Amino acid sequence: MLGVAFVIFLVLVLAVAIRASSAEERARLLRLAVGAIREVKDVATRQRPESERFHEALRARTRWSLVTPALVALNVGVFVSGDPAALGNFAPHTTNGEWWRLATSMFVHSGLVQLLVNVAGLVPVGLIVERLVGRLAFAAVYLAAGVLASLVSLWEYPVAVSLGASGAIFGIYGLLLASWIYGLLRRSDVTIPWAVLKRLTPAAAVFVLYNVVANDSLPGAAELTGLAVGILGGVALARHADDRSADVREVASAAAVAAVIAVAAAVLLRGVADVKPEIDRVVALEDRTAGAYLAAADQYKNGRMTAGALIQVIDRTIMPELQSALTHLKALEKVPPEHQGLVADAEEFLHLRYESWRLRADGLRRIHMPAGRDARKAERASEGSSRLRAEAQYRANMLALGKAEGTERAALEVLQRLKPAGGN
């Protein structure tokens, strides 16, 4: 920010000076400015002899980089038109058949800053490494590093949507490191000079520092996985970089090894439970069953439904639905640790709500459907005894309904903990 402010200050000073000077002075000042700009440009673009030989050797091997610009265009295109939720890497979706998210998540970015940092981190290194090891090897390492980094992200953060190209770009950095070390062991015109590495340092530093800030720590396991894949890929594909690019057979062999590792990891990770839809169903179940009971109770009050039919709404509709939901919830496997507490709350709610409806149904039976034998005994009892019996029965009925309402309140308190997770 200070550098930008200083440049703006210099521009303003220059504008004032030009306005206050004569035409001859302005012409002389313009010649001096043009000369200074040319000198700065010459210094910035001047290369040492070893750097010139290195770039000439790269151009002789592969004149144009095609994969790196294509990756940049793809990242920008997906950022403009893609949907992070539809393309991002999310364990409950990815591990239940949407495995293509492992690849698409590499081209999705959470914001413009992440996109610009990743592009800045990729382009300077990619333009060199692509021509050094060959387009096919470069693309294979990029994709392998990105996919394996995505798999590690699933393991690390199963309930978070992971996206971005950082893992794949760290793979290219690993490939650069392996290529440079091989070049030191066998010197040639394509051995990466120290001067070239120094020119790559600023962009690489920004890229690494951004990932440190984004992870609140050193680069995470996914990024380190990408780096390791790049180094191992370099060991396999950059051995002959001093005289040729990696051939198709070498790239195919390395890609096959990466694919086997990816498939093995995917088998271990498959089937992670998607808890949110289950919580949504539990919340919706409460709304539906409570609404059905209120509608039936209203019909009973208006004389359009008998007490027995009202009780059957609880016994034959509400309680079986709650029991079915509880059974379904207990059958979930591979619930992420972050969601296990949520599932436990949902199970507790269903237990309590089932019990509250059972108690309510029993209370309604006591009030509206006394046993025939008890009724006959009550008729034969004395008036005083009948009154005492009725009072005792009333208290028992109220106690039963009170237990039902208390259990219902406890269940709805648990439900309130579920709604934030199920309603977003």
Describe what this molecule looks like in 3D.
This protein is mostly helical. The protein is built from 18 helices and no strands.
What keyword list fits this structure?
3 domains, mainly alpha, about 425 residues, elongated
| CATH secondary-structure class of the largest domain | Mainly Alpha
Kindly report how far apart the N and C termini lie: 38 Å
User: What name goes with the CATH superfamily of the largest domain?
Assistant: Rhomboid-like
Q: What percent of residues adopt helix (DSSP H or I)?
A: over 70%
Mean pLDDT across all amino acids: 81
Secondary-structure class: mainly alpha
Beta strand %: under 5%
Draw up the topology in text.
Elements (H helix, E strand, L loop, with lengths): L1 H19 L2 H23 L3 H13 L5 H15 L2 H4 L3 H4 L6 H4 L7 H22 L1 H22 L9 H20 L8 H22 L5 H17 L10 H22 L5 H27 L5 H24 L6 H32 L3 H9 L2 H40 L2
Helix pairs in contact: 4-8, 8-9, 8-10, 8-11, 9-10, 9-12, 9-13, 10-12, 14-15, 14-18, 15-16, 16-18
Describe this structure in a few short sentences.
The protein has 424 residues and is mainly α.
